[in-house]
Amino acid sequence: METLRKLEILADAAKYDASCASSGAGKRDSKKSGGIGSTEGSGICHSYTPDGRCVSLLKILLTNFCIYDCAYCVNRVSSNVPRARFRVAEVVALTLDFYKRNYIEGLFLSSGIIRSADYTMEHMVEVARQLREEHRYAGYIHLKTIPEASPELLAAAGKYADRLSINVELPTEAGLAAFAPEKTMPTIRGAMGELRWRIEESKEERARPSVVATPHRSAQKRAPKFAPAGQSTQMIVGADGASDRDILTTSDQLYGNYHMRRVYYSAFSPIPDASKALPLQPPPLQREHRLYQADWLLRFYGYGIEEITDTTQDGMLDLDIDPKMAWALRHPEQFPVDLNLAPKELLLRVPGLGVRNVKRVLMARRHGRLRVADVARLRAPMRKLLPFVQLLDHHPHRRLDDPASLRASLAPPPRQGSLFGESLAS
């Protein structure tokens, strides 16, 4: 099979993996080494997948052959799809060729399982090794690691990759047992724990003072980095019956127990020859969006799981308004917040105020009391903000006495989809 046809098949097969962002990589270039590539990203062109996703990584599978039969996966062993497999040398050559043409800033490599987890992982690690050691490639590398692989192979992967990721697949152990019987939650969590331990050990060793060379003692080399951009994971949303509360609870545990850099949420997409146990329709894409917003509240705004999912909708997030607004409307007794007096923790609860604007408010009020015009200069969404705040020249009065009416005024009106496929964003 020609390389171009393989690329067409294996790039399309990789599009379902959302956890491929290159954020968190340290700065590195090859000017001094005489190699190729950098993680600076200057001058990098972005390419677009057929479904509109913007990517700047060569995002492919080593192969879409797989011995597993996960019901939600288009590449499962029982799926009737075209199959292809790259040789190690082909992936290396494609990465270098695309980088030299300024199409990409790095490589995201995943794979189906062929023969065994160790056999597959060996080939993926060899791709990264050849790029780093034989071609002195300094660009970004993200490897999707296989939880069943040996600890030695996980260690080798972290030696060459900037980021490693292991998909938790589904948010609950029951869902995983039902739809991916070859995979187990203890194995996945065990591999995540192995990566966390190695990442933290590497950081601790590199933080120790280095030994300076003397006439009687040679200099001590710094410990090598291990996956300096950390680890991430991904969950499929809407394939099983897990609620948003279940999903966010699992995410919160992953952030706390394994120090994940990111948890990605991927809306289930119906696949050919699907199991009858799977839903016929995908979940609303807005659900995926609301989960990302709720994830942000957990990580950066100090919200707890119960606060975000404290609804009468069986643990599901409101699709019409964002989770922060939903919390504010459920707790009108907390508002209005006086922007001239409230502490940072309370300012972060105000709809329309993000972390950056909260910092700006705190800085601005050192020089005088804030008015509506002062806040407007922050380019905050005033329509969303004003019902919940008090300023020197503004008070919402009794708007918060009727949360249902306020919600109706803030929620976007329902829109009829076009029969002719016109974009609703236009």
From TrEMBL:
Gene Ontology terms, MF aspect: catalytic activity; iron-sulfur cluster binding; metal ion binding
Stretch list, region Disordered: 20-39, 206-228, 404-426
Cofactor: [4Fe-4S] cluster
InterPro entries named among the record's database cross-references: Aldolase_TIM, DNA_rSAM_put, Endo/Exo/Phosphatase_dom_1, rSAM, rSAM_sf, RuvA_2-like
Alphabetized Pfam families for the sequence: Radical_SAM
Record key words, sorted: Iron, Iron-sulfur, Metal-binding, S-adenosyl-L-methionine
Domain Radical SAM core: 61-174
Domain of life of the native organism: Bacteria
Signal peptide stretch: none
Protein name per its UniProtKB record: Putative DNA modification/repair radical SAM protein
Species this protein is from: Stenotrophomonas lacuserhaii
